[in-house]
């Protein structure tokens, strides 16, 4: 039942990458929390909070999809190092605007957009490193550990951020400043990795545009990968009402920033429990069907959150949603990494990242706008219910995805070292 820790024991490069990413992503979670609170405190508008999603999504979509071709041709380690350093500089600028106490939010929006553009290269390149650092039979365990990182940051980040914001002389600027320092851990974790070059022996693309088109063509003609992406977009677009959190917290629980921190932390706690108990995920054969089930549970969790009158039920429903999300993300990553050949890995991994992150930003915009037009409760409830309906429709419309079974053996992946993955 427990998570398989063998990748951390047996692959020092993966261990360094995992540890550095965990610390850095915890710092990034502080910034996400603080940015939402800064925009809401400045504007008192859920629609304005939702616009953070638009500011982040547009550069993520453009750079992420086009950058996938670069990941398939360049040294992935150097890309991660360069983009991490760039994000560190932007994080310092975000901290500076907070300490200047600006009355406008557009500088923050621009900086978040810049950070998102850089992340469109950084995160897919980082994920594309993983298959080269682990043996084939450790891939599922490695992806589950990566998800464990996400849950640790969801718990530690908002919980710490709520305390930091409420602490005199720290506030929002303290969150941003700690995030800036945390990028040093990511730099260290990547610096000692081996060079990882993509396999281009079967690549026929002559231009960057043709490479991008070839990546989309692969996704389009592979129903299993396309189904995994669509199922995830369904979940994040309809069922991720983070833009509503400040308003719901203010209406039900007095607007205490520590309570707001518990909202997102509860999603992380549920996800962490699921990640710790992720041992059976690697043995799931009907991965497409299992992903549709976890998406359904995710939607149900947010539907309950929308109408829960008590804090304990609010946090419990968010925890259930977080647990389901861990299953969704791990299954999606496993499907993508297993089905995708290495020559397309950078492009498909970039699309995977855009789907996961961009869908969430679109969902934040959708829920925030709908919450302004109706009420935050109606927006959250309708989103959760539509997620459930969407999962049923996807299963009926894409039977190949619902019937997909994992191969009996994991694909052979080159071990750690100065490698060109086969």
Features of this protein?
single chain, 422 residues, mainly alpha, Growth Hormone, Chain: A, 16 helices, globular
Task: Give the structure's gist in a few sentences.
By secondary structure, this protein is an all-alpha fold. It has helices at 6-10, 12-43, 46-71, 76-99, 106-133, 139-166, 171-191, 208-220, 223-238, 245-253, 257-276, 287-307, 311-339, 345-373, 376-397, 399-403.
Percent in helix: over 70%
Could you name the CATH topology? Growth Hormone, Chain: A
CATH architectural grouping: Up-down Bundle
- The strand count comes to 0
Count of alpha/pi helices? 16
Shape category: globular
Which structural class should the secondary elements be placed in?
mainly alpha
Please, what is the CATH homologous superfamily? MFS general substrate transporter like domains
Order of helices and strands: HHHHHHHHHHHHHHHH
Radius of gyration: 20 Å
Oligomer: single chain
Number of domains: 1
Which regions are unreliable across 5 or more consecutive residues at pLDDT < 50? 201-205, 410-422
Return the CATH class.
Mainly Alpha
């Amino acid at each position: 039942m427990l998570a398989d820790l063998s990748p951390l024991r047996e692959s020092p490069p993966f261990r360094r990458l995992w540890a550095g990413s965990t610390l850095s992503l915890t710092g990034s979670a502080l910034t996400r929390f603080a940015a939402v609170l800064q925009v809401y405190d400045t504007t008192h508008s859920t629609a304005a909070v939702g616009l953070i999603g638009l500011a982040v999504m547009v550069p993520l979509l453009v750079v992420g999809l086009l950058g996938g071709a670069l990941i398939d041709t360049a040294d992935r380690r150097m890309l991660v190092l360069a983009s991490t350093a760039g994000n560190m500089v932007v994080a310092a600028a975000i901290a500076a605007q907070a300490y200047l106490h600006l009355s406008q939010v557009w500088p923050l929006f621009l900086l978040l957009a810049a950070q998102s553009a850089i992340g469109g290269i950084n995160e897919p390149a980082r994920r594309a490193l993983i298959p080269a650092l682990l043996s084939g039979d450790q891939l599922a365990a490695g992806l589950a550990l990566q998800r464990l990182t996400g849950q640790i940051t969801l718990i530690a980040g908002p919980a710490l951020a709520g305390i930091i914001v409420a602490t005199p002389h720290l506030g929002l600027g303290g969150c941003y400043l700690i995030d800036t320092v945390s990028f040093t851990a990511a730099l260290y974790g990547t610096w000692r990795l081996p060079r990882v070059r993509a396999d281009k022996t079967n690549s026929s693309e002559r231009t960057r545009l043709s490479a991008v088109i070839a990546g989309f063509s692969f996704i389009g003609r592979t129903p299993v990968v396309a189904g995994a992406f669509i199922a995830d977009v369904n979940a994040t677009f309809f069922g991720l009402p983070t833009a509503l959190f400040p308003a719901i917290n203010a209406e039900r629980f007095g607007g205490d920033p520590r309570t707001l921190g518990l909202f997102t932390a509860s999603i992380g706690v549920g996800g962490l429990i699921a990640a710790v108990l992720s041992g059976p995920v690697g043995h799931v054969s009907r991965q497409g069907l299992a992903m549709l089930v976890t998406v359904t549970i995710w939607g149900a969790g947010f539907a309950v959150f929308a109408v829960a009158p008590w804090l304990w039920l609010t946090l419990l429903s968010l925890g259930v949603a977080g647990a389901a999300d861990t299953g969704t993300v791990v299954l999606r990553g496993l499907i993508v990494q297993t089905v995708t050949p290495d020559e397309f890995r950078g492009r498909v991994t970039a699309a995977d990242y855009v789907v996961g992150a961009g869908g969430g930003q679109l969902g934040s915009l959708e829920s925030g706008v709908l919450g302004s037009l109706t009420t935050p409760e109606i927006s959250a409830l309708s989103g959760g219910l539509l997620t459930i309906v969407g999962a049923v429709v996807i299963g009926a419309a894409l039977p190949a995805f619902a019937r997909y079974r994992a191969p009996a053996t994991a694909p052979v992946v080159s071990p750690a070292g100065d490698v060109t993955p086969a």
